[in-house]
Every structure is written in C-alpha cells, then in structure tokens.
Amino acid sequence: MNDHKIIFTGPVGAGKSTAIRSLSDVAPVSTDELATDITRERKEQTTVAMDYGILKLDGGETVHLYGTPGQERFNFMWDILTQGGIGLVLLVNNARPAPFTDLHFFLSAFEKFINSTALAIGVTQMDKAEPGAPTLEDYYKELPPKYINTPVFEVDARQKNDVVILVESLLFSLDQCLEA
Amino acid sequence: MNTSIKTQHEHGTSRESDVIYISLKGIQGLAKKSLAFLFSTQANRKYELVDDHPDAIFIIDFDDFRGKAAWDEMQSHKQASSSKPTILIGLDPINEEGVVSLQKPFRTQDILTAIDTLIEQREEQAQALHNRYPGNSDVVSGKESAQQHKPRMSSSAAASLNEKELHAFIGSAADIDLDDPAAIAAVQYSPERFLAHHLGKMTQVALKERKYLQLGCCDTLFIVDPHKQCIHTDASPRSQRSLGALPMTGKSPAYEKLTKLPADMESRQQCFSWEAFIWRLALAGARGRLPEDTSLDQRYVLRRWPNLTRLMLFPHATRISAAWVSAPLSLREILKELAVPQRYVFAFFSAASATGLLVEAEPASTARKEKPSPDQPSQRRGLFRRLLKTLYRKQGDNRA
Ligand SMILES: Nc1nc2c(ncn2[C@@H]2O[C@H](COP(=O)(O)OP(=O)(O)OP(=O)(O)O)[C@@H](O)[C@H]2O)c(=O)[nH]1
Ligand SMILES: [Mg+2]
Fold first, then answer.
1. Partners of residue A140 in chain B, C-beta under 8 Å
2. Rounded distance, CA B270 to CA B288, Å?
3. Interface pTM, i.e. ipTM
4. Is the Cβ pair B158, A179 closer than 8 Å?
5. Under 8 Å CB-to-CB from B215, ≥6 apart: which residues?
6. H-assigned helices in chain B
7. CB spacing of A140 vs B304 below 8 angstroms
8. Which of A84, A60, A67 is closest to A31 using CA atoms?
C-alpha cells in the first residue's frame, strides 16, 4: 500500500545522487564507491548499486526516491524497480560527449514505464557544457513525437528548487487538474 | 556576513517607509486632485505632494504653459538641476534625454511605475557612488560589485516572486465577467507599446537567421546573440522591471543587423538568457493583463514547456504550462478547466506569447489529444495533491 516511488535515472554524472540528496527528507542512502575503469577519468565517486531517499508527506505517508546507477547500462532490476512507480525523472548530462545517445538509450530502456506513467527530463551540467552542446530546443527536436509534451528543463541537481520544479512538472503532466 | 544581511534588511525597510516627494508642474485642478487621490490609495507607499523639495520627483505636463515654463526654467539651470528626476507627460511623443516620458492617455499605473523607475535609478546611482567611494560598510559593496562583474548567463536559478514583486509583475486585479466586453477591454493592453513585444519579435528572427540583431530603446542597447542564445545589454538587473513596465512613447523601435558583437558588449559579459529576459519584461508590461484583440475563443498551444527552472515563477505557472502543452485550449477553456485567478493565466499568456512559445493552434488540431490514461488517476489524485503540497513547502524552504 505505502510504496509510492519516483524513479530517477540517467547516465554517469547526470546528478541522480545529488538530486535525491537535494530532495530527500532523510540522509539518503547511496552506494557510492570510488569510480573504477572508464568512469574514473570523469568523476571521483559513482553509484554502484542504487540511490535511495524519502519524501515525507503530511499524514505520515512516504514517497520513496530511487536512483539507478549510471554506470550500469542495463539491469533486469529496473523492471521490478519501476513497478507501481509514479513516474520517471530522467537526468541527462549535457557535458557528456553524446548526450542524445544517452537520451535515446534511457527512453527506450524505460519505454514501458513511461508509457503507463509520465516523464520529466532535466538537462544538467549546462553550465559546464562546451559551446556547441545541445540547447533545450535541440532536445525537444530530438524527442520522439510521442514524448513531445514532456517537460525538459535546465536543471542543476545541486539546486533543490530545480529538482522540485522538475518533479512538480511530472505530477502536472499526469494530472493537470491537481490543485495545491 | 552578518553585516551584509543587516544592511540589506535595513535598506529594504527604509524604502518601504520613506516618503516619496512629488512636485507637480502644470498640473492643477481635477488632474491634481486625481493624482493626489491615486497616491493616497497606495497602501505600501507614502507619497507627499510638495512645491519643492531636494528629493522631489517632478511631474511636468508639457501641454500646459506653466509646465512648459517650469521645464524651460529647469533646463536653463541645467548644471544644477540636471539630476532632478523628472517625468514629462504630453499628448505628443516627447524626446528629451535623461527623463521618463509618458504619452497621454496613459493609465494611472504607468505613472506609479515611472516614479518607481526614477527611484530605482536614484538608488542605483547612489549605490554606484557608494561602490566607487566605499565607506566603512564596504563588506556589502565589495560583495555586490564582485557580483556585478560576474558574467551573467542563464545559470541563475528560478526566482519565485515575493508578495511585493507579485503585485508588481502580476497585479492584483479581480476576475472579470468574460461575457462583458467592457470588462474585457479594461484588462487589455497594447503589447506594441512595451519593450518585451519588440525584443521577442527580434529574438525570433535573430535565432532563426543566426544573426546578431540590435535594438536601441529607452536609452539602452539590446543585442541578441544567436550563438550564445542570450541578450547582451547594459541594463542592470534592477532596472529591468521598469524597462519592461513602462510604455514606450514615439514610434516603435526598429532593429538592425550587426556583423559581429561590439567589443565593449563582449567584454562586459552580461548576457541574459533570452527566454528568461523576455519572460520577465513581458510579465512586467502585462501586469496580469491580456494583449488587446486577443480572442477568448481562439485556441492556443505551447510549442514546448517554458524553461520554468530559469524563469520568473508565479503561482500556477507549472499547471498552466502542463495544460497548454497537452492540448490546444482557448482562454475561456483553460480558465474553466483550471479555475485559477484570471490574472495568472493572463500573465502567463502574455509572457508565453512574447517569448514565442504560445502560438495559435491550427484549426485541424482543435480536437483534444487523448492522453494514454495513467494508472487509476483518480485514486492517485489524493496522493499527488499531498506530494505537491510537500514540494511547495520545499520550494519555500529554498527561498528563505
Ligand atoms: N556544474 C554542475 N555540477 C553539477 C550539476 N548537477 C550536478 N552536478 C555535480 O555533478 C557531480 C555528479 O553528480 P552525481 O549526483 O554524483 O551524479 P550521478 O548521476 O549520481 O552519477 P553516477 O552515480 O556516477 O551515475 C556532482 O559533483 C554534482 O554536485 C550542474 O548542473 N552543474
Ligand atoms: Mg550517483
């Protein structure tokens, strides 16, 4: 009954661990380890298993926040993880070499889940991206037609406000008649 | 650290309680009485009409011989009086440098905005002077001037409006009867008279043709940079609201092509994300009103979500975006569906139109797109509502 959850996914360094930390009401559980092999050049720490945080609602309910590990490109666990989930937050690291390849990879990996729920995309590291990196307009052009109504925002995962607005847009995509 | 917080706070409160001295020249009789009445109805400001006062702001009617004479008199003492903050009003466009001018007929709000502009300019000059000759409290000025030199790019976070700003950007008009043409006319404005409209049009062209385009208006230069997708300007962030809020006088500004970015603009490195800049100016000009000739029954649709994390956010903006992204809706329809105060929808309409994001829906697409129905939406609505409440609270935390 009480197993509401929001899933955060995206490639290495997109800010999944950070976003969950920004939002969580308890110290999040991360299974970060020193990055090995490929990831090491880019960042010190990477999540090897899962991020986990909690949002506490009035009345004692909780919403679980799960982050998939970015390094693991495919995992049969994802199917189980998403069951009953409210929706998907996809963070894309705009400073990576081919962000659109990442985008399509995660859209197709979570296609079934997105189709039955909703999606919100946060493009992170826009401040660090190279001059030629894609703009938000480019992301909209790149999205498959069926995702055309998806919110795509510039997000800095360290800014709680950014993450909050992204999740709000996810909820309103599901139900515009929600009221505060 | 402490010093800076305290000083800013004091600054804020002193502004609220300060008396604003106004000197009228060439304005008497009924006009004077109406202005006095307008000033007396402003709850959060205190105005006092004076003949002369060292801090007075002058409002001069150019069409009255006494007003004209007072202006000529001020001009002849220009050395001494050049810094006197002045608002010139007249039936014809007025081209005088260094003053704010309003063309008749104008709305009462315009005169209050003009006064705010002059006060902001005066405070800015004082701040600049203070930065140049810092006194003992240079903790604050040092910090501020460092910030001023930082390149301003699109990475600044979304700004949620506080109550005073909310009033300035969205207004506080009550809902009107949508079947009453006179009531509708009263909440409309001409976008062509405001800067956001022209900047918006120019930006669309600049981005499409990938050219630098420049617009000069209101003593300020604006250059759209199609590569960085931003607008270079020397307008300080503080003066932006009044730039957007003041109706322009005279003929509408024309833009010109530049082959490259002028060196001084480039070195200044103050470039604002075009979307955030135009959005803000448009909100300031509209103040919760609707562009004139907008049909309440024409359907509109958002080409994409506005980049809400970097825009000036106001209540219901996320909801309105979600509704207008998912289906073509007329103003009448969206107001009925969302049941939010009209001024928020009108403000959104103005800002999203000026940025080119909200466009008329093609007649063929008038049917509502059916969304794949999510798992038991009605059962989950209660949960979503409680979740939303938690999120709103977190947004508040962040602002504090
Ligand atoms: N400059 C900048 N840094 C960011 C932004 N978003 C997140 N970061 C930082 O980027 C780094 C990577 O973020 P993480 O949260 O570890 O990324 P992750 O998605 O969990 O990465 P993996 O666990 O490796 O999959 C952290 O140091 C964040 O503070 C952003 O928009 N700009
Ligand atoms: Mg991580």
1. 304
2. 28
3. 0.90
4. no
5. B198, B199, B202, B221, B222, B223, B253, B254, B255
6. 2-17, 29-40, 65-76, 78-81, 108-132, 138-149, 163-170, 181-186, 195-209, 240-245, 263-268, 274-286, 317-326, 331-338, 342-354, 377-399
7. yes
8. A67
Ligand nearest to the CA of A70: 1
Of A9, A12, A16, A18, the one to substitute when testing ligand 1's pocket (max ligand atoms within 8 A of C-beta) is A18
- State the count of interchain CB pairs (< 8 A) between A and B: 138
Ligand 1 neighbour A156 (Cβ under 6 A): yes
CATH assignment, A3-174: 3.40.50.300
Copy the structure tokens of residue B58. 């002058």
Q: What is the pLDDT of residues B74-128, one digit of tens each?
A: 888 765 545 688 999 888 878 777 788 888 777 777 888 888 888 877 877 776 6
**What is the distance between the alpha carbons of residues B294 and B14, in angstroms, rounded to a whole number?**
41
Domains of chain B and CATH, by start: 3-129+379-399 (3.40.50.2300), 163-360 (no CATH)
For residue B105, cis peptide bond before it (omega within 30 degrees of 0): yes
- CB A68 near ligand 1, within 6 Å: no
In A, which residues are within 8 Å of B399 by CB distance? Answer: 161
Q: How far apart, in whole angstroms, are the C-alpha atoms of residue A86 and residue A89? A: 10
Q: Out of A55, A161, A174, whose CB is closest to B398?
A: A161
pLDDT in tens, B194-248: 999 999 999 999 999 999 999 888 878 899 999 888 999 888 777 888 888 888 8
pLDDT of residue A48: 58
- Look at ligand 1, atom 25, and give the residue with the nearest C-alpha: A70
The rounded distance, in Å, linking the Cα atoms of A103 and A147 is 12
| Residue-by-residue DSSP string for B307-372 | -GGGSEE-TTHHHHHHHHHHS-EEHHHHHHHH---HHHHHHHHHHHHHTT-EEEPPGGGGSPPPPP
Domain spans in chain A, listed from the N-terminal domain onward: 3-174
Instruction: Identify the CA nearest to B323 among candidates B343, B310, B340.
Output: B340
For ligand 1, atom 21, name the residue with the nearest CA: A13
- Asked if A162's CB is within 8 angstroms of B307's CB, the reply is no
Task: Check residue B106 and report its DSSP letter.
Answer: -
> How far apart are alpha carbons A114 and A174 in whole angstroms?
11
Name the token pair of B122: 């005066």
Structure tokens, B82 = 């050049």
Residue A128, ligand 1, Cβ within 6 A: yes
